[in-house]
Specification:
Number of strands: 8
Bound molecules: pyridoxal-5'-phosphate
Strand order of the largest sheet: 7-6-5-4-3-2-1-8
Structural class: alpha/beta
Length: 217
């Protein structure tokens, strides 16, 4: 597949859902991909990317930002508190705020530096023990705590269990966002971004369908 094809499918999904195309942001997930592939997508004019590791992003995005204008890079993977300072400097948004300790660290750094990326709170909609995110029943309280710390919470993010119908999880995330007055919904990947758009996604995170399979070799 390719960027053009994914863009066309997003256009179609927006039409089918009666949504404004401008309300759906495509995050091209470039983790693990060779620099040539990332460069090719930048050269086609795409400017919004996602990475899941601080270290990996630090190794490639400063150079790409120097070479291309208006690049945005979001962190979509787990963040350790000891890398929070680096993450604040590197990323335009963090989609993986998932625990009080991280929220407190981000709030302290935001005060100190006077800046903070847009934040999404990750919700573990499937309540999977190995997965990051607050469980749905803790989400309202955690969102309130983050807001009380003046953190710029823009929305929620989820990563549905691999073998369940993702739309149930997207609908749950949308419901939690709505009752908390949050506009942002980071949900949907290569295999399910169209149903995420149907259920209100504002940020879809698409990797392999744009760049090809990741080679972890
Ligand atoms: C890797 C990753 C994606 C993209 O996955 P694809 O299936 O390649 O589209 C999306 N979200 C997160 C959190 C990821 O880690």
């Amino acid at each position: 597949m390719s960027l053009t094809e994914i863009e066309a499918r997003i256009d179609q999904a927006c039409i089918a859902a009666g949504r404004d195309r401008a309300d759906v942001h495509l995050i091209a997930v470039s983790k693990v991909q060779p620099n040539e592939r990332v460069q090719a997508v930048l050269s086609q004019g795409h400017r919004h990317f996602g990475e899941n590791k601080v270290q990996e992003a630090a190794g490639k995005w400063p150079d790409f930002r120097a070479a291309f204008e208006d690049v945005k890079v979001d962190l979509i993977g787990p963040l350790q508190t000891n890398k929070a300072r680096q993450a604040i400097e590197l990323f335009d948004a963090i989609h993986s705020v998932d625990r009080p300790k991280l929220a407190k660290t981000l709030a302290r750094l935001a005060q100190e530096t006077g800046a903070c990326p847009d934040l999404f709170i990750q919700v573990n909609t499937g309540e999977e023990p190995q997965k990051a995110g607050v469980i749905p029943s803790d989400a309202d309280a955690f969102i309130a705590d983050c807001r009380a710390m003046d953190l710029p919470v823009k929305g929620l993010m989820c990563l549905p269990p691999a073998h369940e119908e993702p739309s149930l999880h997207f609908a749950l995330l949308a419901k939690i966002a709505e009752r908390n007055g949050l506009a942002g919904l980071s949900m949907g990947m290569s295999g399910d971004f169209e149903s995420a758009i149907a259920l209100g996604a504002t940020h879809v995170r698409v990797g392999s369908a744009i760049f090809g399979e990741r080679d972890y070799g």
